[in-house]
Amino acid sequence: MITKLTKDNFDTETKNGLKLVEFFADWCGFCKKQEPELEQMDKVWIGQVNIDDDAELAKKHGVNSFPTFLVFKNGKEVNRFSGLRSKEDLMNVLMKYI
């Protein structure tokens, strides 16, 4: 399940449970290639921040390359990484926090 995140709902959406958040840009080629991998993860909560719409949110979280993934557990960032990742790679990272 992919949820659009903005400055208005980011904190509320990431405060409980294990959350994977992708910061992306529409013009980013790697981000476009990442999308099919994310769509295969239909049982995982994924939030997406479009940095063209919410640049201040990217700045607040220190994101300056795309795609960048942040993993939150109960509202706290526990991991971050950048670059194109397979579904398997993303699932392996999340499994460390379950």
What does this structure look like?
- The structure is a single chain.
- This protein is about 30% helix and about 30% strand.
- With about 100 residues, the protein is an alpha/beta fold.
- A five-stranded mixed sheet has the order 1-3-2-4-5.
- The radius of gyration is 12 Å and the shape is globular.
- The two termini are about 20 Å apart.
- The relative contact order is 0.24.
- The mean pLDDT is about 95.
Tag the structure with descriptive keywords.
98 residues, alpha/beta, Glutaredoxin, 5-stranded mixed β-sheet, 4 helices, 32% helix, globular
Summarize the structure in short.
The protein has 98 residues and is an alpha/beta fold. The chain has four helices and five strands; from the N terminus they run E-H-E-H-E-H-E-E-H. It has helices at residues 10-14, 29-39, 55-60, 87-95; strands at 2-4, 18-24, 46-50, 68-73, 76-82.
